[in-house]
Each structure stands twice: as C-alpha cells, then as structure tokens.
Specification:
With 380 residues, the protein is mainly alpha-helical. The chain contains 17 helices and 5 strands. The mean pLDDT is 81. Pfam families: Phage_integrase.
Length: 380
C-alpha cells in the first residue's frame, strides 16, 4: 500500500516541472494540498502557455480552495461545486465585523480559520477583500470548466449574496503601497546598499532594475531570467558619453495580448548595477535574482515574489523611513509619478511601464499637475 508520504513526495517531484512559474519554496505544502487531478490541470495550463502570473494565481487559489473545503466540510473540494458550497464560501469570507462582535457564529468559524492559519494560507483576521473573493470564485469557475463541468457560478443567488455582502460592509479602497517610491525615496534606499557585499549588489540591482524598467511588478522581477536579457548597442548620453543599454523581454504580461512579447529597455546606471551583480555571482543562465544564505551561498532558484517585497521593506527600514508606508508596488507607482514630475510625456512613460490603460496611468500625471497647479497653491 502506498503511504501518504510517498504520494506527497511524488507530487513534490512533479511540481518541480513548474519551478519557473510556481513558488517552489511552498512546493511541499502544495504537494500535500493539491490532488493528482489538480497537478494535471496545472500541467495542461503550462502546455497551453498560460501566463506566469495567471498560473501562480490559479495555483495559489486552488490550494486555498482545497484547504478551505477540507476544513469547512471535512471533504475535498467537489467538482462541480454545488451552489450551497459557493454560498458558504461567500459567507465565510465576506462578513460584517460589527455583527461578529454580537454573533460569534457570524462569518468564518474559528476552527476553520485556525486550520487555514496553521498551514499559512490565511493571514487576514477579518473579512476578505471583495476583489479577492471574486477572483477566487472566477478561478474556481475556470477550473471547473477546464474539467468539462458546469458550475453554479452564474447563479442569481450567488450574485445576490456577493452584492449584499459588499453593500453591508463598506470598505475603503487601499493602495498597494501607501506612498510611491519616487526618485528621492529611491536614492535613500540605494544609499543603504551602496557596498560591495552580495546582498548589497543584489538589492541595488533589484531596486534599480525594477524602477528603471518602468516599475516592474515584484513577480516580474523575481521571475526574471537570463534568457530574457539582450545587450543592445550603447546609447550616447550627455557629453557624448556612451551608456550601456539592455533589453528585457517580458513575454506575456498581465496587460499584454496573448502572443505579444513585451520589451522594455534599461540604460546607464541600472545596467551597471545589474552587470555588477551578475559578475560577482557568475550567473550566466537561469534566474537572475536569487536568495543568499548566511554563508554567502547563492541559491539556484529564483527569489519568491514576496522576497522582493521584503527586500524593499528592509531597505526602507534601513533608510529610516516608515516601513508601513512603502512596498514593492511603490516602485511601479513611483516610476509613473517620477516621470510625471519630470515632465516626461505620458505616452513615453507608458511605453516603459507597459500600462495598457491611459486612464489608469494618467492618474499619476493628473495628481502631479494638481500638486503644482495654482488651485493647490492659493496660500503659497
């Protein structure tokens, strides 16, 4: 008889084939949660060329749903899920903290939350964001369809439950990073990693590459591979000084078309910082940014996207800034904010940031104009 540990080890080995797109530091936990059919679904998505960010989100949501179903019902996630289970999911995740004070049974049961927290898939102590719930339901629906099944995701009762739950608990929309990491803030962060140690070289390259390439998402930075980098002819800067230039092929991104290869360029100091890191570690293939252990050994695997956020926050702390006000997403918003402050045309900045929506990107420009406009300076 095959033991559970043997099954987990086999699944963990199978998950290695997704090392380029899934968070492999969580491989063993995913192997315990996901079923053989789940692994086959992920393999199908890889073969179909599903974008890396999309695949990560689906794998993460699938693991969450499997864990939640087992904790809430005592059985694995059924396919297709009945309408009652979908409504239970909404009730467990969209609830009113005020009612919870007088009704302990309202919302997610404490024993279910304890199980999810124990395996580190639940971090929030309050209700989930409506967008998170909608995304997980959407991925749940997609996974159901890929199995050739029909679910109750278009049910009027489910739509009404979500609508009423959101209306009952108004939530203020929070930015992913409270403050943008603009040029002046970035300079302070870079000052904390100006040395020649491996962590300094890596963190300096991460900060400069992420910012200068248009404010790349942390998943794009963590997943960057040598095959995506192409050296370009030097660019002539001020004083006829040649500046090193490099192209980053992003492939399919969150905002690109299905077959579009997004390309952004680095010029000057960011290229020097990246080359210094690669030269010091002799990395010539595979993942560009990797973990460094206490003895200075370089991992063979890519950084987890969360590690990029941790690096940003560590440098924020070292710079004497308020850690809670900045995150890795601040590099993305900071790039467009800095471009607006320097008078760079919106279209040119969007070519680098790869924002698809002019409306979204223009928010940073509108804010910059409002800050410097006459209406904001009546008493200056």
């Amino acid at each position: 008889m095959v033991s559970k540990s043997d099954i987990v080890q086999r699944r963990a080995a199978q998950l290695d084939e997704f090392a380029a797109v899934l968070p492999m530091d969580r491989r063993d936990r995913l192997a315990e949660i996901l079923t053989d059919q789940d692994l086959e679904t992920l393999r199908h998505l890889v073969r179909e060329g599903t974008g890396e960010n999309t695949l990560r989100a689906i794998a993460s949501d699938l693991a969450y749903l499997e864990t939640w179903a087992l904790a809430a019902t005592g059985t694995s996630l059924p396919w297709p899920a009945p309408e009652a289970l979908l409504l239970k999911f909404v009730a467990h995740h969209l609830w009113d903290p005020r009612r919870r004070e007088t009704d302990p049974e309202h919302g997610m049961p404490a024993e279910v939350a304890a199980v999810l927290q124990q395996v580190n898939v639940l971090r929030a102590s309050g209700p989930h964001s409506p967008n998170t719930v909608r995304r997980r339901l959407a991925n749940w629906s997609t996974l159901t369809k890929w199995r050739g099944l029909e679910g109750a995701f278009a049910s009027p009762a489910l739509k009404a439950a979500i609508r009423l739950a959101v209306r009952a608990v108004p939530r203020q929309r929070r930015r992913k990073s409270a403050k943008a990491i603009t040029g002046d803030v970035l300079a302070k962060l870079l000052a904390t990693c100006s040395g020649d140690s491996l962590p300094d070289l890596r963190d300096r390259a991460i900060l400069m590459v992420a910012f200068a390439s248009g404010g790349r998402r942390r998943s794009e930075v963590a997943g960057l591979r040598m095959e995506q980098l192409t050296m370009e002819a030097p660019v002539i800067g001020e004083g006829e000084t040649p500046l090193p230039s490099l192209a980053i092929h992003l492939g399919r991104t969150k905002n690109s078309g299905a077959s579009q290869d997004e390309v952004v360029y680095l010029t000057g100091r960011p290229v020097d910082a990246l080359n210094a890191w690669l030269a010091s570690t002799k990395i010539d293939s595979g993942s560009v940014f990797r973990a460094i252990d206490r003895w200075g050994n370089i991992s063979r695997r890519a950084l987890d996207p969360k590690a990029v956020n941790n690096i940003v926050k560590q440098r924020v702390r070292m710079a004497g800034l308020e850690v809670g006000e900045f995150s890795a997403h601040g590099l993305r918003s900071g790039y467009l904010t800095e471009a607006a402050n320097r008078g760079i045309p919106l279209a040119e900045a969007m070519e680098q940031s790869r924002h698809r929506s002019v409306q979204q990107a223009s928010v940073y420009y509108n804010n910059a104009e409002r800050r410097s406009g006459k209406a904001a300076r009546l008493l200056s």
